[in-house]
Design a protein that fits this description.
Elements: H1 14-28, H2 32-48, H3 57-67, H4 74-88, H5 90-94, H6 97-112, H7 123-136, H8 138-144
């Protein structure tokens, strides 16, 4: 079991089993309407776990990474959950910086250059999520994004 940042172990709850089912369904589902319903359900159940969400942060990060490839309205719900994770469990979110931040930056870049993403996610939501994630480990984020403002072909994600 994952220990919460205060050092107390979080016990497995029935909600954990339910969240596993939601993650599994989201990974298998192709209908955007159903994905939106599942993400809203995940958002509600997420709050029931309290500090137990620490067990699921890696799953959430991986899900967001995959869903950014073909985003629907459900991605907004996932990004809002992620923003709360960054604010409430910054050290756990910082561990996902190397895997998730590059995917978010790629999504923003593609969207800015008309290569996908459309207007599904507002600029405000993207800005809040990126800012919250960057604040989890500013020095690592700075190193990862070296040369980002220079030639796009030389962007480094170390």
């Amino acid at each position: 079991l994952t220990e919460v940042e205060s050092g107390q172990p979080a016990s497995v709850k029935k909600a954990d089993h339910f969240i596993m089912k939601i993650f599994t369904r989201l990974n298998l589902e192709s209908n955007f309407g159903k994905k939106l319903v599942l993400c809203r359900l995940l958002d509600k159940v997420w709050t029931l776990l309290g500090d137990g969400v620490l067990r699921w942060i890696t799953f959430l990060s991986a899900l967001i990474t995959s869903e950014l490839q073909v985003p629907g309205k459900h991605i907004v719900v996932l990004l809002n959950i992620w923003e709360r994770v960054c604010l409430n469990y910054s050290s756990a979110a910082a561990r996902e910086l190397k895997s998730l931040l590059p995917e978010i930056v790629k999504f923003v870049w593609k969207r800015a250059h008309g290569q996908g993403g459309g207007d599904i996610i507002s600029d405000e939501v993207l800005a809040r999520v990126v800012a919250a994630h960057l604040k989890t480990n500013p020095s690592a984020a700075t190193k990862m994004c070296r040369n980002l403002l220079d030639d796009a072909s030389e962007v480094e994600f170390n």
